[in-house]
Amino acid sequence: MSQIFNKAILVQTKLSNNFLTANNFLKAAKNFVNTSEQDNDRTSSTALPLVKSDQKTKYLNSKLIDFNPGWNNLNVLSLCPKAQDSLYVNTKSGVYTCLNCDKTGDWNEFKHLVEKIIDEEKSCSEDEQEPEIIKKQIKFRQAWTQAKQIRELNDSQFKILARNSGLSDELSKSIFEAYDIRIHEQDIMAPVMDHKSQLLDIILLNSKDRNESLKPNHIFGLDSLSTKTNSVLYITDDVFNLMALKQELKKPVIVLNSIEALSDQVLALLEKFDSIIIWQKDTKLSYNLAKKLNQNRCNLINYARTPYESLIMKENLVKIVSSEKFPLKNESIVEYKDFKESVYAEVVHSKQYSGTQWKRFPILNDILKGHRPGELTIFTGPTGSGKTTFLSEYSLDLCVQGVKTMWGSFEIQNHRLAKMMMTQYSRLNLYKNVELFDYVSSQYSKLPLKFMSFHGQETVQNVLKTMSNAVVLHDIKHIVIDNLQFMIGNQFSGSLDRFAQQDYIIGSFRRFATNFNCHVTIVIHPKKEDSDELLKISSIFGSAKAAQEADNILILQEHKTAKEKKNTWIKFIEVCKNRYDGDLGKMLVKFDKENLCFSTSKSVNNGPEPIVVDALTDLNNLNNNFNLLKENC
Q: Which of 200, 226, 255, 260 has the most crowded Cβ, counting Cβ within 10 A?
């Protein structure tokens, strides 16, 4: 970077009398460094888009030429000595346009121009206009000077003219004067000017084919655009529509009937407008114009009447524009290029995108691949099987690794939940190790863990508000709701109302998880079924809404078996749904009553005990065949 600034200082010494000042070189040098370091920057709002470092920006940086990115062009600064900010380079085609010198050319001609200006200190163009163009302008000027200006008519004469020409009284005389409308005998003439107010053509407003008389490469009203930066520009398809919009809205308006008129020079002129509203009859042309002008800043109006017709009907054009305009780019419609980088990132960094890995339950990593934000997990199991106990350790495992967690325990009071989690955290029976309580409590309090103060029945509005605050204020990434039935309570009578309310709440949690990029885990009790049967997805209480909305469904299964003439219980976590990659499976768990853990110390460091692996293999091979399960376990 020091070499770049040294070069700028040398140029300052060599070209101290030139139009390129040292400040511009230093600023350009900084721009070069910033652009090189931020090649992959993206815009995240409606501000002007950042331009990627391609051959155009790299060339400008290499020449220490400062520029500003725009909607369709790069605004090259201080290259033309006659005017500042007048030269534009199209980001796609590379065609350059100098609004001051009326010079244009392709990318190679621009590079040649840059070398010429820097070496010879010349302006963008030292050529005179072609004689043919001058002769044509003189011819139009002579015809124009013979016409009578509207301002020379008094009010009564203007009303007679308007009545005889079939014009509406709603258009004021002042709006005709603003565009220098003139009359010659019975003809009403409107001048077509370029951006420098040079006469290009004449339109007869009282002619039926006045729209066709506007040549495809001409734009009416271009000369009326202020040199100051404006926020909104209106584009319409008729001079009377233009005058109606200008009169009622007091905003810049132009008439544009062909895509051919949007030359690189015109695009450079329109670069200063952050918003463009197009109101034309031809919807297809409107779409094409918007795409050429950059659809991110364009709005279309598809209304039954034209602006002029609406004015005649005494409609409020301000209200029409406000209610009828719609953006060309719908934020709900995206293309592959909009998320291509996300696809690439997941392919290249699959481990990172698979989520946080469990340390106490490594088999879950093989099945679910990890715990990811923005997902919804449904967890169920038989009453008294240990759902809350398992989920406490399950969430604690993630919390210890830095996943900021909040518990909403509507069934168990927070101090009892915390006591259980502290026991699992320390793997100690705190009743037998009271002397270690302060130390364990001190370490446990450092975890990124929050609790909701709710207990029992609570409205979903209050719960969602608390969840939103937790995400915004504390950056919570995992929220546990235990359990849904306790939260709903008896607010609604009748099974239909209860099911409908549960569906509404689950849908709300689904939207929350997606919109806030926060993982939500919900405990739902199962339906009352035969205790000898393993639970299925259809066992989840309520309608099918929960299963449909969930990204993951985990069931704590338990089965009673006879082994060595003793009844034993086998417990395992069954993953019944995995939207991330579709893998399903089972993880055998053993509950240790001493430390309230479903995982053992060996499973954390060295994997499951051999007996656990053998039992899990049996479960997978038997595929829930209970007769064989009883014979082999």
A: 255
Q: What is the pLDDT of residue 214?
A: 82
524-531 long-range contacts, Cβ below 8 Å, gap at least 24? Answer: 524/378, 524/379, 524/380, 524/483, 524/484, 524/485, 525/380, 525/383, 525/483, 525/484, 525/485, 526/380, 526/381, 526/382, 531/382
Neighbours of 191 (CB within 10 A): 20
Q: What is the C-alpha to C-alpha distance for residues 329 and 339, in angstroms, rounded to an integer?
A: 16
* CB-based contact 236:253 (threshold 8 Å): yes
Output the pLDDT for position 146. 79
Report the relative pairing of strands 376-380 and 298-301 from DSSP bridges.
unpaired
Q: What stretches of 91-239 adopt beta strand conformation (E)?
A: 96-98, 103-105, 148-149, 182-184, 187-193, 199-204, 232-236
For 389, residues 6+ apart whose C-beta sits below 8 A from its C-beta are 420, 591, 596, 598
The tokens for 84 are 């500042």
In whole angstroms, give the CA distance from residue 616 to residue 632: 12
CB 590 within 8 A of CB 598: yes
Pairing of strands 449-451, 405-409: parallel
Q: Which residues contact 175 (CB under 8 A, 6 or more apart)?
A: 243, 246, 247
Q: What are the Cα distances from residue 305, in Å, to 113, 279, 308, 309, 320?
A: 48, 10, 8, 6, 10
pLDDT reported for residue 186: 73
Q: What are the start-end ranges of the H helices in 250-361? A: 264-269, 283-293, 307-312, 317-324, 336-348, 350-353
Task: Give the integer Cα–Cα distance in Å for 396 and 350.
Answer: 24
592 close to 390: Cβ distance less than 8 angstroms? no
Structure-token match 């049996």, residue found: 618
Helices (H), 121-270: 131-145, 155-164, 173-178, 239-249, 264-269
pLDDT of residue 101: 76
Positions of the chain with pLDDT lower than 50, given as ranges:
1-53, 121, 123, 126-129, 600-633
Tokens of 391: 């989920």
Please choose, from the candidates 540, 463, 449, the residue with its C-alpha nearest in 3D space to the C-alpha of residue 509. 463
For the chain, state the CA radius of gyration. 37
Among the listed residues 428, 409, 427, the one whose alpha carbon sits nearest the alpha carbon of residue 417:
409
CB 278 within 8 A of CB 237: no
**Pairwise CA distance, residues 242 & 195, whole Å:** 17
Residue 302 neighbours by CB distance under 10 Å: 13
Structure tokens at 198: 């040079």
